[in-house]
Amino acid sequence: MKGIVEKIFGTHSQRELKRIEPIIQKIESYDEAMQALSDDELKAKTNEFKERIQNGESLDHIMPEAYAVCREASVRALGMKHYRVQLIGGVILHDGRIAEMRTGEGKTLVATLPAYLNALSGKGVHVVTVNDYLASRDAAEMGILYNYLGLSVDCILSNMDNGKRREAYNCDITYGTNNEFGFDYLRDNMVLYAKDMVQRELNYALIDEVDSVLVDEARTPLIISGQGAKSTHLYKAADIFVRRLKKGQLLGEENAMSTLMREEIEEEGDYVVDEKQRSVTLTAEGVKKAEQYFGVENLADPENMEIQHHITIALKAHNLMHLEKDYIVNEKGEIVIVDDHTGRLMDGRRYSDGLHQAIEAKENVEVKKESKTLATITFQNFFNRYAKKSGMTGTALTEESEFREIYGMDVIVIPTNRPIQRTDHADVVYTTEAGKYKAIIEDVKESVAKQQPVLVGTVTIDISEHLSKLLKKEGIKHQVLNAKYHQQEAEIVALAGKKSAVTIATNMAGRGTDIKLEEGVQEIGGLKIIGTERHESRRIDNQLRGRSGRQGDPGESRFYLALEDNLMRLFMPDSTLRMFNSLKIPDDEPITHGIMSKAIERAQTKVEANNYGIRKHLLEYDRIMNEQRELIYGERYKVLTQENIRENILNMTRDVIDQAVDNAIAGLEYPEDWDLAKLMEYLNTIISYDDLTFTQEEQKDLSEKKLKNLLFEKAEQLYSIKESEIGDQMREIERVMLLKVIDQKWMDHLDNIEQVRQGINLHAYGQRNPLVEYKYISFDMFEEMTDNIKLETVKALFHVRIQNNQEIKRESVFKGPAVTNIKDTSLPKAPTKIEKIGRNDPCTCGSGKKYKNCCGQ
Which strand (E) or helix (H) includes residue 208? Predict the structure, then answer.
């Protein structure tokens, strides 16, 4: 049905391009007028636009003229004029949408149009890139244009101090990575003084490689953490135990059906591995061995949950996490994760839930302690905080439904400036990997013989190194670009378009850097792309193809596959695999059958849908947490920016007293039955009423309202005495104390809620919806946390003492290097990024103590 509609009315992108055509014509109509302006007159347009905006004119209204100004300024400052298709991209981006633009179409220059226009409002523009190198490069190169037009520009880098960060954020346009923008948001919500904040309002985010940021890292919480205090001995014990276990065979479809329909089939081995679901399970025999080894009667008992967890993650470390594919061991003996999408090393990142420690035990390196979460947010929720966001990428259309549903952004495919000349050949499939690699080497040899450059894309480090050995054996010169050699990335990518160049690249290493063809390469077919395996996502395959054929250059691409590849082995129907294996096709002969290409596409679609389901499921849970985060951060900001919060403290005091009275007299109708002595004993630990007592006669005359008012009036008097003792510093003490309590209770809440989330699926056994249960439980926990914030704050302020009238020590939040904690799920893993606080660093609560002697105890 969709195909018929598109044939009649055109695709969504075609209809939208037709709609904005008059806007493009209007921009172009200003060309002659802009060319006639002097440099000073052209530059003066920026202030003119700012005044018009202040007088009520909308950005949409001035867009055509502003784009024309930016276009002409680009010619004068950079020597580059925006193509027509780049103007189209600029209009799409200003509308808060995603522009799909092919590699080499000049996305960096396109971004200058909406960045210039939106910066005129004075509220700031954040241009988001995927790494520091691109942020600093684009800020420097495009900064020439922005400065020419009278706008300030800077970039945020990971090693900057707070002062420089604040200056960068105060610029009209700020470049930086998604990690840096997100971490700065979290840090700003941990400071004790407003002057220590670095960001302004989150106005407009323009995200480069938007699919990488909002899809590939969608399950990636940013986490600021401190070191925990748990022992690591159980990781080592579990590792020793699982090495003794025997792996069993997972029940196939036929055996599983037999189990359901007839008699039980006895499980073999001590555990089974389900690669599709990324899970491991102990068999009955495995459970028995675990109980004997750890000396417990019943492994399923709640008190043995920790042992269960450590066994499970140890099994995952040994069976699902592979050296040279998922991680490497560096020269310092540290486990470093390899990014599944880019092939880059993710220095400093760590898997969460103990998986990283389990891998450390497996590889016999130092097992480091788990961390404590201090603040966290997902990229989904962070970028949804911006008033407007838009994005650019070469590949987004396959994920359009996700962009629409989660981010409210549609994808518009922008036509290329010149027609694409690349030829995308049909996949070639072999029965074995050996046959596949042999064919790849032959293809490379043929290309080198005619001096055609070749880029070979692999999905793992070990495959890239295996191919490198095969090429060396054939005497073929080549370069390897993977996580181990990322320092030479830009240099290797720059040379990949030279005659006879052979480059092996892990996945999308080098993304963001164009491969330019040497003179004469066009005549011999351009850059050839060889894919060694289909990725789970068609989008990643398209990114690899897109490295060739930039700006109308010739090129070609082909994927070589084997029935032993992970995608085929795990997600293609067993019946299809059996059929092809039964044909006894020789290793070096390709399988030529129409069913194969359809089966591959179905397998990829199946995996994409599965991964989208995971991301959506996680977001549903995180939305609940996000509501609580926004409430806490909103209240925290009010405290941070208010000069006087005395009234807030007194309101908290009244709430604490009212709750104490309610608890003390619950169910007791007559005042003479109230245990006021017990009530006062409790309240004295909080407010110190000293000698406040009630005679029996006084108690008879009390009502609930009278009692509450009397206790509050007395507390207010005591607080006034406390204020007179401390003097002018009281207002500052109130604010700092309250912020410290909020932060501590919020940290505890994050830990507690994560434990609930880990075990929430057990509620499904009771025929209850886990998500609904999680919502109820988290709401109750949040209510309890807010009550505790009031209680602890009131208690702290009524007992505060200042010696020698010393000023309260000011401490801003500690800012350390970003470290990442990657969250393990039973399905494909979700990276999480963590900024770590060491045991000997200043505590983030501002006490002036070391973290280990304060909140880290």
Answer: strand 204-208
What 3 state SS string does 574-594 have?
HHHHHHHHHCCCCCCCCECCH
CA distance 163 to 82: 35
User: What is the 8-class DSSP label of residue 761?
Assistant: G
Give the residue-averaged pLDDT of 503-528: 81
Q: How many residues does the chain have?
A: 857
Instruction: Please give the span between the terminal C-alpha atoms of the chain, in angstroms, as a whole number.
Output: 62
Q: Are residues 155 and 247 in the same domain?
A: no
According to DSSP, residue 644 is labeled -
Mean pLDDT, residues 508-516 taken together: 65
List of residues 6+ apart from 74 with CB closer than 8 A? 80, 81, 82, 109, 112, 145
In 3D, which of 506, 530, 526 has the Cα closest to residue 517? Answer: 526
Written as six digits, the tokens of 812 are: 């801003």
Rg over CA atoms, the chain: 31
Which residues touch 623 (CB under 8 Å, ≥6 apart)?
A: 381
pTM above 0.85, yes or no: no
- Residues 271 and 336 both lie in one domain: yes
For residues 156 and 214, membership in a common domain is answered with yes
Q: Is the pLDDT of residue 816 over 50?
A: no
CA separation for the pair 822, 828 (Å, rounded)? 11
The DSSP code sequence of 290-319 is HHHHHT-S-TTSGGGHHHHHHHHHHHHHHH
Instruction: List pLDDT tens digits, range 263-305.
Output: 444 567 999 998 777 788 899 899 999 999 999 988 877 678 7
Inside any domain, residue 625 = no
842, part of any domain? no
pLDDT in tens, 368-400: 887 778 899 989 899 999 999 999 988 888 888
CA distance 824 to 832: 9
Q: What is the CATH number of the domain that holds 752?
A: 1.10.3060.10
pLDDT > 90? residue 95: yes
Give the chain's count of helices (H) and strands (E).
32, 24
Q: Are residues 182 and 37 both part of a single domain?
A: yes
- What's residue 185's pLDDT? 97
Of 525, 494, 250, 209, nearest in space to 379 by CA: 209
How far apart CA 780 and CA 726 sit, in angstroms, is 37
Read off the CATH number of the domain in which 282 is found.
3.90.1440.10
Range with the poorest average pLDDT among 571-580, 603-612, 638-647: 571-580
For residue 719, give the 3-state DSSP assignment. helix
Highest mean pLDDT among 130-134, 272-276, 324-328, 470-474: 470-474
Tell me, yes or no, whether 674 and 734 share the same domain.
yes
Q: Which residues lie below 8 Å from residue 173, measured CB to CB, with a gap of 6+?
A: 115, 116, 119, 124, 125, 127, 146, 151, 152, 153, 154
In a domain, 617, yes or no: no
Let me know whether 193 and 297 are in one domain: no
| Segments forming the whole domain that contains residue 572 | 425-603
Residues 584 and 663 both lie in one domain: no
The DSSP secondary-structure symbol of 215 reads I
In this structure, are residues 196 and 813 in contact, taking their beta carbons and an 8 Å threshold? yes
Backbone angles phi, psi at 426, to 5 degrees: -65, 155
Task: Compute CA distances 803 → 685, 725, 794, 806, whole Å.
Answer: 22, 11, 20, 6
- Assess if residue 30 is contained within a domain: yes
Domain CATH number, residue 165? 3.40.50.300
Q: Between the CA atoms of 552, 553, 558 and 559, what dihedral angle is there, to the nearest 10 degrees?
A: -80
Same structural domain, 390 and 432: no
Tens-place pLDDT, residues 652-676: 999 999 999 999 998 888 888 888 8
The number of angstroms, rounded, from the C-alpha of 323 to the middle of its chain's C-alpha atoms is: 24
* Each residue's pLDDT tens digit, 100-112: 998 778 899 999 9
Number of structural domains (the chain) is 4
Cα dihedral across residues 674, 676, 677, 678: positive or negative? positive
Q: Which residue type occupies 712?
A: F
For helices 538-545 and 594-641, angle between their N-to-C axes, nearest 10 degrees: 100
Residues 447 and 64: their CA atoms lie apart, in Å, by 47
